[in-house]
Each structure stands twice: as C-alpha cells, then as structure tokens.
Automatic annotation (TrEMBL):
Family affiliation: Belongs to the MIP/aquaporin (TC 1.A.8) family.
PANTHER family for this protein: AQUAPORIN OR AQUAGLYCEROPORIN RELATED, MIP AQUAPORIN (EUROFUNG)
Keyword flag Transport: yes
Compositional bias ranges of the Basic and acidic residues kind: 1-10, 100-112
Phylogenetic lineage: Eukaryota, Fungi, Dikarya, Ascomycota, Pezizomycotina
Ranges for region Disordered: 1-50, 92-123
Keywords: Membrane, Transmembrane, Transmembrane helix, Transport
Endoplasmic reticulum as UniProt keyword: no
Organism for this UniProt entry: Penicillium cosmopolitanum
Any GO CC annotation of this UniProt entry: plasma membrane
The protein, known as: Aquaporin
GO molecular function: glycerol channel activity; water channel activity
TM regions (residue ranges): 145-167, 179-199, 220-242, 277-297, 309-327
Chief location bin: membrane
Record's bilayer topology term: Multi-pass membrane protein
Length: 429
C-alpha cells in the first residue's frame, strides 16, 4: 500500500504534482477563489451557512478497538465519487501532459530552445489559469450565474408543483404538497448555490442583506438582475412542461387560458374577498418572518444550527410560511411576464391595482427590512448593522453615501472640507 507522500493531488498513486506542471496554479484561478470563500477567507453572505468542512468525528474509540479493526480511520487510497461527501478533484486523461507523442515532442523542442521542462505551460495555459474562453467568462460571472441557476431551480419546482395541483383538479397534488414543494425547492437551490453566491434567490433578501449586513450594493444589483432572469426562465420551463395539461383544462372548462385554473397557478394574486391592506400585510409579515429567521440562523453569537443545516431549516420554514400565509395572496414577476409572452394579455400587469408592484415588490422588500430591523433591535450586537452604529458613525455613513451619490451624479460636493471627519463635525454643528 502506498503512502500519502506517493500520492498526487489527483488522488492517484505514484504521481506528484510536478508530473503535471500544467495543473492550475493555486493563485489567481477561479477554483482558488471558490476555495478561499469556502474556507472563510473572503466574506460570503450565504443563506447556506459557513462553508467550512465538517469537524472531525468525536466518536469514542475503545482501547482494544484498533487491535481488532486495524483499518479503521485509515484514508482510502482511491478517490470516491460519493453523493454524501465532496467529490474528488482529479486530473482527467485529456488534461494530463506527456501521454501523447506530441507532448514529448513539445518538451524536446522546449528544452532545445532553452525554455526548460515547463516550456509547454506557456502554450497550454493562458493567463490566470484560464484554459478556455468560457472559464474566463465564468470566473467573472460565477456568482450571478449561481443566482440565476438557483432561482430557476427553486421556482421551477414550485411552479410545476402548483400547476400539477391545479391542472389535475387536486388529483396530483394538494395545497399542502405544493407548499412543501416550494419550501424544499428553495432548500435544494440553496444547497446547490449557497457556497458560490450565497443562495439569496430573492431580491428582497439581497436588498435587506445589503442594508443590514454589508452586502456590496454593486453585487446586489447584479443578483437582482440574475434572480429576475431566473424567474423568467423558470416560468418558461414550467409553462412548456405543462402546456398540454393547460390546453386540456382550457378545453374542458371552455375558458381562455388567462381565465382558467392555470392562471391561478402561474399568476397568483389576492383572493377577491381579501382587502388590499390585508393582502399587503400578509406579504409583509411572511417576508419579515423569513428574513428575521435568516439573520438569526446566520448569527454565530446566537444559536446557529450545525453545518449545512441552514438550508434544510429554511426549506421547512418556507413551507410553513406558505401554508400559514399563502392562501390570501401570492405574487411573481417572472411567470407573469412569461404568461404575457404566451398571449394572455397585458391586463395581467394591471389587475388588482397592479398587485405585482405593491405586493411582491413593495410588501416583500419592506417586510424583509422590517424583519432584520426587529431582530437587530432586539438581539443582534454586531457592528455591521446600522442599528448598532454610534451616533457619529451613523452621521458619517450618511455623509459618505451622500457624497458618493453626488459624485456619481456629477454634482460634486457642495463645499470642500479638509477631511471626512471635519465634514461630520460641520454636520453636527
């Protein structure tokens, strides 16, 4: 059995990293960036919790146990492609250098030209470790792409579960099952993207994270754009998958698509008997509870759950909130836009006094901000929250934002000051 010293980075015996000098350098690559974030070297505003590895097992081991089980605890010499642990990183045959006669010829020419044995690196490897054009694009768009993918997955699962219930007249689902599908759809999406983008999957949560936890405003705008695109993608997928079922419902009910039960599934809105104020505060309350729970789960000074449990708990919480508050209202922009493209009519954006604006946007965003405000007011002690700013820091932050805004608008400062602290002093006086 070979020792760990004889094993390469790819998990194969007798191979060292020097045998494959074209392997990506640890610095400056997209993989290194993701590792830094996963190890906590870079701040990550994730709903999936910290990205650190699980701690070592603390199981009790008897004195004579190792004598009867000598293989216990020894590292496996071969990579394991397990669904219960991180997948191994190996060097595929197509990436290995030296396997083809052409590689040996390139090495010989490099030595002849005085470039040394690593001369082929300059030919195979571009700057910063990008081996192709898509690697470079993905490096700069990895987080928005993750938000797009996560939102697409979560909303596709939820919309399909709702369409299944409505188009089958309750034979292939129920309100309870579709609520669970929404919650666990978001759970799966957070697990899928939480280590890359944080798995916000909702503009309200990104905005609240920016205001109360210091999430960069520039990233917030990128995330919202990616989330909207993901919602549109999910609406298109769900409509395409259930198109035949929708047509069957339309033929049976003798109603147009925008008046059938399919419209209730694709485009949720307040019930006819629900007062507008009740509809608004239903959305407001649900969003406040969800984001209040999110900041609580992410507060390491409180009682955070074990590693990897945040997404599971959020999935259950979303299911419970939908069950408790989802009957009165609901709202979505992406599927509504898909329905407009399908020819359902422009009145979709005017019905219920433009519900899609003051419900899913105004109520949800203000609810998330209120949930974070109440949690920080009652419990949170961290300095990143505006609630805990000292008076001078609060005025300074307001002054910085005002100066930055005037600079971006090309207005310039009203009058010059020697430094920012003098500006704050003048503001206090």
């Amino acid at each position: 059995m070979s020792s760990s010293k004889d094993r390469g980075q790819d998990g194969t015996d007798g191979v060292s990293s020097d045998d494959f000098p074209e392997h990506e350098a640890p610095g400056g690559t997209q993989e290194a960036g993701s590792k830094d974030e996963g190890a906590g070297n870079n701040p990550i505003f994730s709903l999936a919790g910290p990205g650190a590895n699980n701690p070592a097992s603390n199981a009790y081991i008897g004195d004579q146990y190792m004598a009867y089980n000598p293989q216990y605890g020894k590292q496996d010499e071969n990579p394991t492609w397990s669904l219960a642990q991180p997948l191994p990183h190996i060097v595929r045959p197509g990436m290995q250098h030296g396997a083809l006669p052409e590689d040996q010829k390139e090495d010989a020419e490099s030595l002849k030209n005085g470039h040394g044995a690593a001369g082929h690196q300059a030919q195979d490897k571009s700057e910063y470790g990008f081996f192709n054009s898509w690697s470079r694009i993905r490096h700069y768009l990895r987080e928005p792409l993750a938000e797009w993918l996560g939102t697409t997955v979560a909303m596709t699962i939820g919309l399909c579960a709702t369409l299944s219930n409505f188009t089958s007249s309750g034979q292939a689902g129920s309100y309870t099952s579709q609520s669970i599908a929404w919650g666990f759809g978001f759970m799966a999406a957070i697990y899928m993207t939480g280590g890359i983008s944080g798995g916000h999957l909702n503009p309200a949560f990104s905005i609240a994270m920016s205001i109360f936890r210091g999430f960069p405003a520039r990233k917030c705008i990128q995330y919202i754009a990616a989330q909207l695109l993901g919602a549109i993608t999910a609406g298109g997928i769900a409509y395409a998958i259930y198109h035949d079922a929708i047509l069957e419902v339309v033929a049976t009910s003798m109603l147009p698509q925008n008046a059938s039960v399919a419209a209730t599934a694709m485009i949720t809105a307040p019930k006819s008997f629900v007062h507008p104020a009740t509809a608004f505060f239903t959305e407001f309350l649900g969003s406040a509870i969800l984001f209040g729970a999110i900041v609580a789960l992410g507060d390491d000074t409180n009682a955070p759950p074990g590693a990897g449990m945040q997404a599971f708990i959020l999935g259950i919480l979303i299911s419970v909130v939908v069950l408790a508050l989802g009957y009165n209202t609901g709202g979505d922009f992406g599927p509504r836009l898909v329905a407009l493209m399908a020819g359902w009519g422009g009145q979709l954006f005017r019905e219920y006094h433009a519900w899609w604006v003051w419900g899913p946007w105004c109520a949800d965003i203000s609810g998330a901000l209120f949930g974070a405000f109440i949690y920080d007011l009652a419990i949170f002690t961290g300095g990143e929250s505006p609630i805990n700013y000292p008076p001078r820091r609060r005025k300074r932050a307001w002054r910085v934002r005002k100066l930055n805004l005037r600079k971006k608008l090309g207005l310039g400062p009203r009058k010059k000051t020697k430094d920012l602290e003098n500006s704050v002093s003048e503001t206090n006086s």
